[in-house]
């Protein structure tokens, strides 16, 4: 497994988070706001704050290895950040498991955050069985999604490099922006549909729930899988990528803190996504990362 | 047009945002809080959150070029950040136009955020005409203000350099701190007056509205004007300036999120401004920026 | 006084803030949430927001010298950041004094944020005298605590270096993580006890109040004391330490903004503390800081 491939996995996971938080949520807010322009759409604020908190925790997990690396204050240069990443990944997986458990237990389970099919869970089903089933379904779905992302990335890495040369587009732009737009098409359609039906909590569950899931489950899971297989994937996504994620999480957290949405908030998220996309269009990995033969 | 002049334009725009957000708003909160010390003053929270969101988006627009440049991960060193800045500026102008449109359309137009003369708009005028007129007035006012800033900067750049040598004060301090204090005197007086009259929404409109306007209209407008005239002005304000703006926006966003103010919040903003001012007093541009003959 | 000793003082102060905000508050939220799992615990939101604001201001005071230093944009390399730190420290002390005055004056003094023994202040005592006494007590307590920290640090610096060599643990980990856990044991026990008794405001007063006090009083006080004694202690805690504090303050501010707590929020803070601790375990000061003989 080449070093370049680890970067593609990292970048497509990052891109998936960015696209869910800005593009999918932005489109949902915008289309919902246009259809229901006579009123403010509301959603479950406390759930949104909890998700913002998890996303900030994920940013913390990614930020420290990147800062340690870029300030050259690691104990053993290059190796310490890998050990730290693996430890942090375990913590993040446990935190995500605790989050699922917490949602399972909390009676006022207003929406099933990861289950797109669970529309009926907000009332019409038996309260005792239905949510648990949807939880297990969703856990399985997590594994399937992650496996799919891993597989896709493995398969696509050569295609991406070819396309990058042919179309003269940086690899970063293809893996961070183009891939996730295609990959998130289903979630995208779902989130918009539910927003138009004024079921904004489900839209949020799809968009922000997916982001939380990828950042607190997908990324650490890939690090652990890489550990088992002997690949040096770590949480150091480099400073620029981490800064992008950080700003995105902050903007979205501020947009969500009120518990209301309108079409302008949606538009702002879309404009932010354009700025993010443009930034990745002029971004390349520094030579030191591209050329090195593998970090082990 | 020398490179030093672009820096003065950048820094006086930045200083104007900082002074509006910390000094003007701080004075307004403080004087309002002292006069009305028996109660908590309230303001329109959702409008404040919207403005915080726009300011965070502006920080995003400034942060990415600065991070790209300082991590040396641009596609074409020096040129890519200019292209990105011009693209982001267009996005920011469109976003600001959308914001004005959104405010125009929203019926519950509790205050006219950019129009200092529009005191009566909160009730006593005809609802159908008055706000639109004040909007158009304010749009014209935007152009006048921006032209004035541009003109002032062009005229003053030599004076600043002379003063800097004579008084032994860094250029950064003059353009970021001293110039905007003079330039914002009118807004300053207005914001304090309205806060004392317990019309905090108008104070906020003046202070935060001006900051939003400069960051989402003034700065991108200058970039576009520079593009038309062939000057390489970009959104890369350097890491330190961007970090200052980022922290300021965060502090103000946290102060505004509750929708209430008191004199201590005002004091805190003033203290923050003193720390910011002191930081710029010991800040100089690195040699590489000062000496280069122009970035084209 | 060796340069290494200043670092130990800086790091143990930083560690004390981190441990209060994440470990102590996390344990309080968690144990309170487990015992009162049938309901959401609430606390005084506006007080929490005020403390978040003060903490963000402290981050601002620490961030600017660190960024100035690391971007090499100081006026006089090495000296300017010391002057800035001393100025900022004075501002922070005045701001903290203003905060105490504000709390003293505000009638709805729901809790005495620094006084752990002041349980009765929330109603049962005479309103006119009791809070003032507890304030003066607390101010004395501030001095005692700071003196104790200074003394402890002076005494322990050799012990730490010895332990670091013997146990093969980085000095940073001992001073940032291990020392404060022992040092905060009393606050820790108090915060958990009050959370279990559903007096979450007192828990917050202990945990967040202590953090505010150390960051806005302890740290600047040490800088001023160092100034008087001729030691070059400044607010430049280096980029990694400042980034850690910044992320921690952000995460805690987002957790507090709703004014409610549950066991999952407590767990998240604990997990964040583990990630922070692990990061400091692989962190060493760069050679340039460790070896230099003193910054004067």
UniProtKB/TrEMBL annotation, chains A, B, C:
Belongs to the Ca(2+):cation antiporter (CaCA) (TC 2.A.19) family. Cation/proton exchanger (CAX) subfamily. It is found in: Vacuole membrane. It comes from the Eukaryota. Residues 1-104, 138-280 form the Sodium/calcium exchanger membrane region domain. Keywords: Antiport, Calcium, Calcium transport, Ion transport, Membrane, Transmembrane, Transmembrane helix, Transport, Vacuole. Its main location: membrane. GO terms for cellular component: plant-type vacuole membrane. Vacuolar cation/proton exchanger (CAX). Translocates Ca(2+) and other metal ions into vacuoles using the proton gradient formed by H(+)-ATPase and H(+)-pyrophosphatase. The chain crosses the membrane at residues 12-36, 48-68, 83-102, 139-157, 163-183, 204-229, 235-256, 263-284. The keyword Calcium applies. It holds the Pfam family Na_Ca_ex. This is Vacuolar cation/proton exchanger. It is a multi-pass membrane protein. NCBIfam families: cax. GO terms for molecular function: calcium:proton antiporter activity.
């Amino acid at each position: 497994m080449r070093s370049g491939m680890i970067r593609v996995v990292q970048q497509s996971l990052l891109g998936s988070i960015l696209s869910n938080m800005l593009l999918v949520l932005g489109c949902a807010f915008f289309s919902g706001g246009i259809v229901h322009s006579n009123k403010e759409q509301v959603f479950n604020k406390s759930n949104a704050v909890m998700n913002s908190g998890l996303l900030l925790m994920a940013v913390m997990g990614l930020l420290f290895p990147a800062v340690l690396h870029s300030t050259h204050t690691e104990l053993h240069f290059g190796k310490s950040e890998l050990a730290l990443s693996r430890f942090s990944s375990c913590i993040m997986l446990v935190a995500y498991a605790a989050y699922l458990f917490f949602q399972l237990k909390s009676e006022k389970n207003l929406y099933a955050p990861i289950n797109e099919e669970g529309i009926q869970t907000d009332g019409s089903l038996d309260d005792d069985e239905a949510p648990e089933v949807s939880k297990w379904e969703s856990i399985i779905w997590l594994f399937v999604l992650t496996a799919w992302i891993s597989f896709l990335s493995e398969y696509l890495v050569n295609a991406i490099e070819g396309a990058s040369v042919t179309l003269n587009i940086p690899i970063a732009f293809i893996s961070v922006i183009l891939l996730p737009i295609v990959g998130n098409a289903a979630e995208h359609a779902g989130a918009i549909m539910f927003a138009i039906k004024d079921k904004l909590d489900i839209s949020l569950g799809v968009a922000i729930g997916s982001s939380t899931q990828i950042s607190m489950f997908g990324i650490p899971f890939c690090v652990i899988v890489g550990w088992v297989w002997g690949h040096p994937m770590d949480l150091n996504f480099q400073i620029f990528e981490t800064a992008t994620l950080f700003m995105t999480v902050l903007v979205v957290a501020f947009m969500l803190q009120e518990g209301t949405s309108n079409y302008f908030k949606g538009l702002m998220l879309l404009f932010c996504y354009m700025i993010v996309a443009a930034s990745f269009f002029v971004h390349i990995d520094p030579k030191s990362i591209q050329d090195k033969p593998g970090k082990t």
